[in-house]
Amino acid sequence: MKTVCAYRAKPPYVFGLYYLLFYSVLILNLTFLSTTSRADEVISYDLDQAITTALENNRLRTISQQSLEIAEAQYQQAQSAYWPTLSLNASFQRRDESAIFEYPEMNFDLAPGMLPPVNIPPQEIDILGRDTSLYSLEMTYPLYTGGKRSSLVKQARIGIDIASKEVHRTDLQVVQDVKRYFYAALYTRQLRDLAEEITISFEVLRDVTQAFYEGGSNSVNKLDLLQSRLVHALADATLAEITAKHESSLAALAFTMGLDWRKEINLKNPAYPTTVDNTKLEILVEQALQFNPQVGQLSLAVDAYEAKIDEAQSDHYPMIGLTASLDGFNNNLDGGLSTETNEDSWKLGIGMQLKLFNGGLTRHRVSAAKVGYAQKKQQMLLISESVATQVKHLFLQTNSAQRQIEITQQAVETAQENRDLSNRAYQTGAVKTEKVIEANLMDAMVRANHFRAMHDQALHLAEIAYLLGKEVVE
Question: What CA–CA distance (Å, rounded) separates 375 from 365?
Fold first, then answer.
């Protein structure tokens, strides 16, 4: 009994010493980790820096920008239909032998009855030598195309607008991805720190319980000792799992930022949004339908199909064009067809082409374009309704998360007070081991739920910003 009484006076100090010991070890570990980080040149990024870096390096943005350049080149290609086309043709030819003209035999009776007829034998006359040079400069200019030219240009111009919307949509996606992984890294870091703290607490509890048990205290038994060892092992395993998830989220963030996969990064001044937009749901939906790039793309696609209808209908009308050419001809024969008159010439003309019958091709093309136009309108209505529904869902989820933050904030304070009282009471043997374990687990669970609510709210706000088509850092 003396041993037990003597030992019962020590637990408060032992408990404090264990806390001091493990917090000292924790500080040393953190110091070692920070020194290692500096040696490995780990760079820390806050959210704005991460977004800026991603918009500079992310390959998706480069790809979408190249799509815009392609669309601009296609627009210039369509614009070329308003200019005349000039083509220069030149050739040199050598024949196996000279070209000749055979003059047939002829008889001329100059003075019938007075003089005999004159006979002219057949003759071979050279008209072209073996070597001939040809050149021509030809021009064509469409005067009337039935609306095909203007419709193609309109489609190409809309293509630029669609590509611009895609660039903006990619920027929004990159920003949303950065926020998602940044908040995931922050959330897992909070859980890691919480798991580390609870692991240390359970390690202290395990050692104190073992000291009580080995000291012969009547307040603990073998079951208490096993429970304390079990919860410490579970907390340690949870810490390892959450640490791995935190490292994975940092790796995903680095990839989204366009950094090399070997690059190690960390979070700087991490925090969730401190304010919640109190804008009414109707205003948010209106803004989304006005600025969402996907809705804008489908609206432009409707206009593009309207131009396709004009393009298809243009085949009902004639195509009229102006043609002109300068021709040159040179042969090594002096004479024949190689004369000064034949060597240089020009032509000017107007041509017309009208499709009289093509098996109903034009009619079916017009029908297909009209159906495509109606289809795109339905797709635009569908995506508009989808965006509005998503905004409403996220709006409700954000409000729910805000309510959970307020509730869990109060619960955190209560749980921490309950944990501290249970830990102090355990030192004096006033409570059982399972009550201390329960108090610590309840505190960890409440704080984890509080962190999750803040993470969910931040993520919902980021998704709303994506749907609204705003908050892109230029």
Answer: 15
Mean pLDDT computed over 191-196: 95
Residues 49 and 112 in one domain: no
Rounded CA separation 76/69 (Å):
11
Among 7, 416, 364, which Cα is nearest to 194's? 416
DSSP E strands, 207-305: 265-267
- Give tens-digit pLDDT for 217-274: 777 888 988 998 999 999 999 999 999 999 999 999 999 999 998 899 999 989 998 7
The answer on 44 and 26 residing in a single domain is yes
Q: Which residue segment(s) compose the domain that 75 sits in?
A: 2-94+134-468
DSSP 195-218: HHHHHHHHHHHHHHHHHHHHTT-T
Compute the residue count for the chain: 474
User: In this predicted model, what pLDDT tens digit does every residue of 419-453 receive, in sequence order?
Assistant: 989 988 887 778 888 889 999 999 999 999 999 99
Beta bridge partners of 133: 92, 330
Q: What is the rounded CA–CA span in Å between residue 10 and residue 3?
A: 11
In this structure, what DSSP letter does residue 276 have?
A: -
Residue 177 lies in a domain: yes
Tens of pLDDT, residue by residue over 386-405, are: 999 999 999 999 999 999 99
**Residue 244, in any domain of the structure:** yes
Tell me how far apart the alpha carbons of residues 303 and 373 are, in angstroms, rounded to a whole number.
8
At 335, is the pLDDT very low, low, confident or very high (cuts 50, 70, 90)? confident
What residues have CB less than 8 Å from 45, skipping those under 6 apart? 53, 257, 265, 266, 267, 268
| Domain assignment present for 474 | no
Q: How many whole angstroms separate alpha carbon 376 and alpha carbon 388?
A: 18
- Residue 91 backbone phi and psi in degrees, to 5: -155, 155
